[in-house]
Specification:
Helices cover 65% and strands 0% of the residues. It is mostly helical.
């Protein structure tokens, strides 16, 4: 095992150095919370509809009377944005020990906001939205999910993906917190299924979010983009980093773990 592995470079400027970063962490959590508010108002205030109408597109209703000010479908799309922001906020605040530089905080938050905004706009565009427009105004959120198979599958994928990503990160955090495990890689729990199972979880919830907004084609496209990026860039880089840092301990885990990103797929 080497004394210190060379740090892998990442497009987001994210660091793997373990040190407190109150400014970057606060900025990241704040920007991710602001994104959830933005996605809500894009639907509630009609900003998404205005943007689509400006391009001569037709829209589906998302604003309505009621506690949330949104239709059941609009509430679901908004809730997915809240769930994504909440998951990342929890990870940064309670799980991650890595330094979050302000530049990285802005880059990662902007990246997520870009994809979330695309989903929100597509969910309001009649051409791409999977909103079940045949339902009566009295329809509930449950009625809405059950009336649109793509929406139901998307919400399920989102839930499984968030749970897998965050659950895996918590499992690793607990392992690393034990003094006897200092300097050791973790290959138990969800990580026993895939060496980068957190990436698999992220891919699933991103694909599910996209599918709930604009159907299977958009969901597969977005999921495929992230899967390809992880497979060709992130996983090889991290594999070299872990082998350099942990040596034979990492090689053994890699040999024992059947998949790299998504169990039963890759």
């Amino acid at each position: 095992m080497t004394e210190k592995a060379s740090e892998p470079k990442d497009w987001s400027l994210a660091s793997r150095e373990k040190r407190p970063s109150p400014l970057g962490s606060t900025l990241f959590v704040g920007l991710r919370a602001a994104d959830a508010v933005l996605q809500y108002h894009l639907l509630r205030q009609g900003w998404a509809h205005d943007a689509i109408s400006a391009l001569n597109g037709s829209t589906v209703p998302t604003a309505a009377a009621g506690p949330s000010g949104l239709t059941p479908y609009g509430s679901i799309i908004s809730a997915l944005a809240v769930g994504a922001s909440l998951k990342q906020g929890i990870w940064q605040t309670f799980v991650s020990e890595q330094e979050m530089k302000p530049a990285a905080a802005v880059a990662i938050a902007a990246f997520n906001t870009l994809f979330n905004t695309a989903n929100t706009l597509l969910s309001a565009w009649a051409w791409s939205s999977v909103a079940p427009t045949h339902l009566p105004p009295s329809a509930s959120v449950a009625d809405t999910v059950l009336a649109a198979p793509a929406l139901a599958v998307g919400v399920a994928l989102f839930g499984v993906g968030v749970a897998a990503e965050l659950g895996a990160e918590i499992q690793r955090m607990r392992f690393k917190a034990r003094p006897r495990n200092k300097g050791k890689p973790y290959g138990g729990g969800l990580w026993a299924w895939a060496t980068n199972v957190n990436y698999g979880g992220y891919t699933l919830w991103r694909a599910g979010y996209a599918m709930a907004a604009a159907g299977p084609v958009w969901g597969v496209l977005i999921g495929g983009v992230f899967f390809w990026d992880f497979k060709t860039r992130a996983v090889p880089v991290l594999d070299r980093y872990c082998e350099e840092k942990y040596g034979e301990d990492w090689v053994k885990i890699r040999q024992q773990t059947p998949y790299r990103i998504l169990p039963f797929l890759y």
